[in-house]
């Protein structure tokens, strides 16, 4: 009887840091598919590396995946600039434990990933390594192959840019979950009054169909307009699917409460929420581009700590 082949030390070392590598690549790229490709390419490079030159596997692998992610981000920039309608990150399923850490949750939220999209590839990689994973400037300089001074400057620019567009406040995770549950119930019941209580006065709905499915090509803004949009969901045919055929599930997406909509044979959309300091829903991100729903459809829950 053939014994199962044991993983070698190289493979074990790579597996030890695989979650870290995906976590870095996903935050830099905003795409689970591209992040998985970057991690796979990192494995190929790691497999071919001269071990005598690798003193610190974690630093070495982080350098590989950071540069692969920046390179991939540069190559996809044109596609994103010519995208039909708003470009939103690719949603991923996370566990409720991810939501226990506010910093971890915020760093993978749709709202922050949208802001990171406006940074240069270098600024984005530096921000992720410094602010999310607490790498030192020296470690980041080695990872992104830049001088210490260049990294500090990129980190300063990125931090100022993010803080200006993404004010930080202490999030009450239990309240967010409660608001999301009430929103979910109100949408299912077409209860526009409750929806208006749960939404911020200047709430904004962003929809991403990528030109593949019919969605709003501009943000939908305002309390009453957004409330009516969702109150009508339970009575409206969506992507050819009758309301009675559609199932919706409240789950954890990108570190926070979200909704997955399913038809008889496929995932058709996700919703994620951002909240204002009063705990009301201030932004809703709706991803319906089928090319961006594979990570949710396959059911994998990602650890992103």
Offer a few descriptive terms.
alpha/beta, six-stranded mixed sheet, disordered N terminus, 305 residues, globular
What does this 3D model show about the protein?
This protein has 305 residues and is of the alpha/beta class. Helix content is 49%, strand content 15%. It has 13 helices and 8 strands. A 6-stranded mixed sheet has the order 3-2-7-6-5-4. Strands 1-8 form a two-stranded parallel ribbon. A hairpin with a 2-residue loop joins strand 4 and strand 5 (256-262). Helix 2 runs parallel beside helix 4 (57-81), helix 4 packs across helix 7 (121-132) and helix 11 (192-198) packs across helix 12. The radius of gyration is 20 Å and the shape is globular.
